[in-house]
Structures are given as C-alpha cells and as structure tokens.
Write a structure and sequence with these properties.
Layout: E1 3-6, E2 10-16, E3 41-47, H1 49-60, E4 64-70, H2 75-83, E5 87-93, E6 100-106, E7 112-117, E8 137-140, H3 145-157, E9 162-164, H4 175-184, E10 187-191, H5 192-202, H6 206-210, E11 216-220, E12 226-230, E13 233-237, H7 251-264, H8 269-284, H9 296-299
Parallel strand pairs: 1-4, 1-8, 2-6, 4-5, 8-9, 9-10, 10-11
Antiparallel strand pairs: 2-3, 6-7, 11-12, 12-13
C-alpha cells in the first residue's frame, strides 16, 4: 500500500570547496565573521526531502505518494517525478513563488554549509492530508514549520502511523512542540546531532523516548551505521562501506526511502535499517540526491 511522503521539493545548487571550512573560520572572530569560499565546481540538482525519499522508495519498488508544494518554475520537476510512476496528485503549484532552493557548499571532509530559500514551501501547511483509505503509513520530513505541525496532527487524527523525521527543521520547534510530535508519531528518525538536540529540548533520553509510545528510535551515525532503540534497548547496526565517497547530499533521505520500503512490508526495524545502510552507501558514491541506481536483485529484494 502507498506511503505518504510529506516534505519539500526543491532545487539544489551544489558546490564544492577544495579545502576545509575549519581552516577558513577563526573561532575567536565569529562575531565579525566574513568568509568567502572559492567553489570551482557547481551543478544544479533536483532535491528536497520529499523528492529524494520518493526517488529511492520508487527505485526499490515502493509506492510513494508525494504531498508537497512547487513554485511556478516547477514543471520540469513535476514531469520528472511522474516519470518514476509516482503519485503526484497531492503536489500543489503555488503561484507567484519560486520552488524552494538550497545552495550547498561541501568541503573535502564532507562538512556542509547550506543556505535555503523556502519559496513555495511556505504554503505547504495549507495542503491537508486527504481522506484516503489506501495510505498505509507516512513520513513527516523537513518542510515548512506550519506544514510539519499540521501534517503530524492530521496523520495522528487519521490513525495513520508515521515516521517523524525533523531533520534541519528541528530547530524551529521548542521542547513542548517536539514532545507533541513524539506523542503523535510512531517512529522517530534523526541523525546523531539531531538526536542530541531533541533530547536536550525535550528532557528525554534516547532510551526513554524508545520506552514511550514510539515503536522505535533510529539514530543514523554516518559511516558508523545506526543505533536502533526499541523498548529501551539499543541495537547497533554496522555501517556499509561505500565504494567511494563522492557526495553526502541526500544520503539521509535515501536511507529514509529504504526505511519506508521495509516498513511498508512489515519488516523488523533492524532489517529496515540494514537496507537503509546499504542504500546510503550506494547514494554517497553518486552526485546529487536522485541519481543513484538501485539493483533490486543484487539487494535480494
């Protein structure tokens, strides 16, 4: 059955800085920060969390339904997504707005600095969860603040289990709001830094979160793999070595696409995460968030 993906559709302008940010930023001069990075490589990619997650889920053989907003410059993106056979009936075009845009600089250590223009994403909160009986589960991925809040509430009210994936949207919410998200969600997916911030703001630990209403807490650790917390117990799932490290952009989204694929099929959370680690290793070897190829036969699915 389909998985509803609530999140952003965006264009990514991705550049590479052939040095280290840490060598250009003086910690004792942050109050007068004024830095410039020479970026000889530049490319434009289709991105946004919803688009990236849907790409991987579709490539794996899942059935994503995207709920997001595009601007008046988004026709090419809409055509691209429809070319994957993805349901775009819940994608709304907003007049007088550009599609959301991310400008990303990556250094040689795969650290990233991102500037983000929300554009049409600012109206995503006006799109409501439809009354559909075919949607088995969902994910609330980074989006406009109102959209994340409204969609989490609407999914909970409709008794649709969902993954709460706050990502870069996490700082928009205070502890009370984050606790409300957790109370409504079925699973929580964060990276290590996000997990620390969420725990700090909510007063929870990862262990206590996993003993709440949540069926599991997934913490991604980059090349080290993932920690999966279930009923207060931590299960470490080792990482998968990539053939090469080219571009980390979209790795977390690719992982979440695999997570949804496994959840659609009723897999254990650990098995879902094992697939996510394998897909993340494939993605990091490719540029952009929607260019990695997936050989389902080689993956045994």
């Amino acid at each position: 059955m389909p998985a509803l993906i609530c999140g952003s559709l965006a264009f990514d302008t991705i550049t590479t800085f052939p040095g280290r940010f840490g060598q250009q930023i003086l910690p004792d001069q942050l109050h007068i920060l004024n830095v410039s990075f020479l970026v000889p490589e530049l490319r434009r990619e289709f991105g946004g969390c919803a688009g990236n997650i849907a790409y991987t889920l579709a490539k794996l053989g899942g059935a994503p339904v995207i709920m997001a907003t595009l601007g008046t410059d988004g026709d090419a993106y809409l055509d691209r997504v429809r070319g994957w056979g993805v349901d775009t009936s819940l994608v709304t075009t907003v007049s007088h707005q550009y599609t959301a845009q991310a400008i990303i600089i990556t250094d040689v250590d795969n650290n990233q600095i991102t500037a983000f223009h929300p554009g049409a994403m600012q109206q995503a909160g006006e799109v409501t969860i439809p009354a559909r009986t075919d949607i088995a589960l969902a994910i609330v991925a980074p989006d406009g603040r109102e959209a994340m809040w409204n969609h989490a509430r609407q999914l909970h009210d409709a008794s649709i289990p969902f993954v709460f994936d706050p990502g870069q949207g996490l700082p928009m919410f205070d502890g009370t709001e984050l606790r409300a998200f957790v109370d409504r969600a079925t699973w929580l997916a964060v990276n290590d830094y996000e997990g620390r911030m969420l725990c700090d703001r909510t007063g929870h630990t990862l262990e206590s979160l996993s003993r709440s209403n949540l069926k599991g807490v997934i913490v991604t650790l980059g090349a080290q793999g993932c920690d999966v917390w279930i009923d207060g117990e931590r299960h470490h799932v080792p990482g998968v070595a990539a053939t090469q490290v080219v571009d980390p952009t979209g790795c977390g989204d690719a992982f979440r696409g695999a997570l949804l694929f496994g959840l659609e099929r009723g897999w254990s959370l650990v098995r879902c995460v094992e697939l996510g680690n394998r897909i993340g290793a494939l993605k990091i070897a490719c540029r952009g968030g929607q260019n990695h190829e997936i050989d389902r036969e080689a993956l045994g699915i």
